[in-house]
Every structure is written in C-alpha cells, then in structure tokens.
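Reminder to self: tokens first, then the designed residues, so the page reads top to bottom the way the pipeline ran.
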C-alpha cells in the first residue's frame, strides 16, 4: 500500500509553504506541544491565563511578528503570522487571543497610525513582552455597531480628557497600555492610555464558560487625562479601529484550523482505541462519515486561509475576503469541536480531552471581531452592492 496521507493535511498544504514558513510552524508547534498542552486544561479549569508563557512567546518572536525588524520585531510575512495563530489556537483560543490582541490590535495601530517616536517608545518593549496592551473599542451597549460609540475625548489645553467604558476587553487586567478609541469633535480617534493613569480602571470578568484561560475585562475611564503625544496622529474615523480588526480577523481565520485539527486528531485516536460491541468505534460507518466530513472541512479552510495569506502578502487582501474566511473557518471549527465532543461520549465533557474546551472557546471566537451574521452580511453587500445592516 502507498503511504497514508496526513489525516490533518489531506491536500499536503504544508508543501505549498516556504522553508521559512514551515520553520515558523514547526517552532511554534513544538512550543505548544511542550509548554502549552501539558498545562492548558488545568488553566482552563482554574480560569487562569498562563502568564508564565509570555516571556517564551516573546522570545520566539511571536508578538508583532509582521512588523519590521527595526522595531525589535521578527518581520515575518502574513502567512507565517497565520501559522503562528493556527499553532497557538491548537493549544487554546485564549493563548491565540492574547497574541492577536498584542500583535494586531495594539502593536499594529501604533505601527500603522502612530508616529516614529511612538513606534520606538512602545514597539520594541511590546515585542519583548515587557509592555502588554489591550484594545478598547467594544462598549457595553455597542456590540456590532462601533459607530454608536459613547466614549468621548475632549481637548483641554495640550491634553485630552477621556470618559467612557469598554467591555469584553482581552488582556484588560494584564495590560500596561490600552489603545482606546473615543469620539472627538474631529471624529473617532485612538489614544495610547497607560493603565496606571488616574481615573483608569480595569475590572476582570469572571464566571465565564468560554475563554477561561484568557483575561477578559471591562474598562472604565473617568476623566482620564493624557497628553496629545499619546494620540495616534495618522488616522481619524472608524477606518482606524476597523483597519486593526481586519488584521486581527485575518489571524482568526487561521487559528480555528488549529483547534479543529486538535479535535480531529484526538477523536481519531480515541475511536481507534475505544472498543464497543467487539470492534473499535472507528470501524463504524457512522464514525468514518463524520471523520471524513471533518477532514473535508479542515482542508477547505486550510486552502482558504493560505490563499488569503498570499493575497495579504501581495497587498491585495480585501476585508470581504477576510469576512468570508472568518465566517467559514470559525463555523467549521465550532461544528467539528461539537461533533468531536459527542463522539468522545461521556469522556468528552472533561478537560482531560480538548474538544469541550475548544467548543466552548469557539463560542466566543464566532462572536468576537464580527459575529457570523455580520460577516455574512459583509459578503452579501459585496455580492449585491446593497447594505443590509
């Protein structure tokens, strides 16, 4: 018989990667296998983010990975960043969320919308994990309508005074700085707000059933005063935060592939070892049909994200393409995680197996940075030219 195909990569998508991209994937994969997987079930169970992993994540060059080397970053391409997200989420969505927020939602706006002084002040220390950031856009009443922003910043001499509240903020209670978006007389603008500024409070959200190995917070800004030097000078309007979200959503298209692969591998191993009615579960047609469908959907997602990454690296990626991939790939992973949990039987409800953890995490991933419905409507608008929001 010919050698069997890799069940997690039936189309040998890995062969389409460059040597450097494969090296990035292998390096992050080893980190996840050796450092993340042995502890992440307990972290999820305890509701604890594994902050002890931050130094090694930084040492591997995974924070702000696509930002140029002059700022202390790795200068990788977009596909490499996607593979980082895929491998980290194979460990846990909370870990990938940490890296996504730091890289795409905090370092990216400083790089893209800040001035050179801001870049040199913050980016090298953020790449080293010495400064952690959070991204303050979503508000308690806002959700999918960021234009309905209540947080405001008013000019007072050479300073700005910010008042408002933000909700569902990843890294909020870890952060040293917050990228806060606020309404001004001149439109929405972004500010780099040190979290030790008087009037700034972060309150961690507890009793979560999803992203338990992640820090989620509410931010409150009560007459928070920052200098104009803390304002991001090179963008105004929703273009700023939405541009950040496009970068982060791109990584999210890759991340759930890793979660789905973790679930599929686990259930393949389990169904081959679990014997019922005198034969392994994997010998049943019903099981094989489900496994085959999972492999089909993972393969589709892999090819979708790889092409999206090539478009990104060519400077041709459009937000609608990101929406299509985010919608498809997160839905794919969530459905697979749920089915794998079912196929594991009673064992599937414990964190001794990964499927329930991934399924619960993906309930958040399918909601944040654009709900599934929002991304469907973005694609619908592209097809028809009519805005149905």
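Designed residues (389 positions):
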């Amino acid at each position: 018989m010919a050698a069997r195909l890799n069940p997690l990569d039936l189309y040998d998508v890995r062969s389409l990667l460059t040597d450097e991209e494969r090296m990035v994937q292998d390096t992050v994969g080893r980190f996840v296998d050796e450092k993340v997987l042995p502890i992440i079930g307990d972290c999820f169970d305890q509701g604890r983010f594994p902050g002890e992993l931050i130094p090694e994540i930084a040492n591997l060059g995974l924070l702000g990975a696509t930002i140029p080397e002059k700022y202390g970053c790795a200068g990788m391409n977009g596909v490499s960043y996607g593979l980082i997200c895929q491998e980290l989420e194979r460990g846990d969505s909370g870990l990938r969320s940490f890296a996504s927020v730091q890289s795409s939602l905090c370092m990216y706006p400083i790089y893209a919308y800040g001035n050179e002084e801001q870049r040199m002040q913050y980016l090298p220390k953020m790449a080293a994990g010495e400064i952690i950031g959070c991204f303050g856009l979503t508000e308690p009443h806002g959700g999918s309508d960021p234009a309905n922003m209540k947080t405001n910043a008013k000019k007072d001499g050479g300073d700005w005074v910010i008042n408002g509240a933000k909700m569902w903020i990843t890294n909020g209670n870890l952060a040293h700085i917050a990228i806060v978006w606020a309404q001004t007389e001149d439109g929405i603008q972004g500010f780099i707000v040190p979290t030790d500024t008087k009037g700034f409070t972060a309150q961690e959200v507890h009793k979560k059933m999803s992203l338990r190995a992640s820090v989620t917070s509410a931010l409150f800004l009560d007459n928070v005063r920052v200098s104009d030097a803390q304002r991001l000078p090179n963008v105004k309007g929703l273009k700023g935060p939405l541009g950040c979200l496009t970068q982060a959503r791109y990584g999210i298209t890759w991340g759930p592939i890793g979660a789905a692969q973790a679930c599929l591998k686990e259930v393949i191993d389990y169904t081959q070892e679990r014997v019922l009615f005198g034969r392994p579960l994997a010998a049943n047609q019903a099981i094989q049909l489900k496994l085959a469908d999972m492999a089909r959907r993972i393969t589709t997602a892999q090819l979708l994200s790889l092409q999206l990454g090539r478009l990104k690296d060519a400077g041709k990626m459009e937000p609608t393409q990101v929406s299509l991939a985010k919608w498809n790939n997160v839905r794919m992973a969530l459905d697979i995680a749920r089915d794998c949990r079912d196929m594991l039987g009673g064992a599937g409800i414990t964190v001794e197996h990964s499927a329930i953890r991934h399924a619960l995490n993906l309930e958040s991933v399918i909601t944040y940075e654009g709900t599934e419905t929002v991304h469907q409507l973005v694609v619908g608008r592209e097809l028809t030219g009519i805005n149905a929001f």
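The two ends are 54 Å apart (CA to CA).
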